[in-house]
Amino acid sequence: MPIVPEIPSVVVGALLGGLFLGIGIFLGLCLGRRSAIVDVRSMSREQLQDVLTHLFQWTTGFANDVSHYRDVLARASRDFNPHKPNHTDREVTRLMSEIVNANEQLQKRLNSTESTLQQQADEIETHMSEARTDTLTDLPNRRAFDDELQRRLAEWERSNIPLAVLLLDIDHFKSFNDQYGHQAGDFVLQEVARNLRATMREAQMVARFGGEEFAIVLPDTGVHAGCQAAERARRAIERAVCRYENQTLCVTVSCGAAQAAEKESLTSLLKRADLALYASKGAMPRIGTTANAVCCSVRARAKRREMPRPLCG
Fold this sequence. Notes:
By secondary structure, the protein is an alpha+beta fold. The chain has helices at 6-32, 45-79, 89-131, 142-159, 173-180, 182-199, 223-239, 266-280; strands at residues 163-170, 206-210, 213-219, 242-244, 247-249, 253-259, 287-290, 293-296. 58% of the residues lie in helices and 13% in strands. Helix 1 runs parallel beside helix 3 (89-131) and helix 2 packs antiparallel against helix 3 (89-131).
């Protein structure tokens, strides 16, 4: 009975360990990229099926190569007995050639899997990003905003660092659609998104909340500082030149800000900010208070170039 060398078993074990390590690296690349919060529910069934199919094909191919390598080593162990030194040079050469070929085949698979793993990770990241991004404005969507706000609320509960949320609504948005068409409305949304991105700090997530509403998470910010941020955003949007088909559109927004209270839920915080936003609609003073929140407002017009821009009183 041939003696099975110890080294092949170690090698096979290492290769099998490498398989699981590779899967772990793959999942780490997918789930840990940029420390993003990943929710597989944000991927469609087709996207998940595609990713899982590719992963299954890769792991099956890798497992087959490992199995083939193990068979080659087992055959070499069976055919080559170190206690019988009567093997011909041809036999030794054949066995060594088989082992070398198996090594090369497995090495090719290992080389290709690194690229495959990276490609799969990139595909998943793309799917995740698309599912959490508003396609019109290229801002984070409501799902991404809720996740970020929930994370910040948990952080606020642990560290008691101030947290505020800001809601903005484009005044009389329907007028843009009625007078200039829906493409004009889309253009206004894109311009507002661009101005908000340029005005807010990197740590302040700007998201499209839905329709003509935008929302901003303001970490390490109290309600009064939040109102100052709202005023900066409001002025930036009001002063921006918004030209559409040779027309200069007058775009203004109303804002409502609220600071997180102790043990407050996401729903409660957003409701208070929304109440402040509602109170600011049509109010001449830009700053007022309601429901322990601050509202910033300016009267709205969506008229042609001849019409004056809103005045700030």
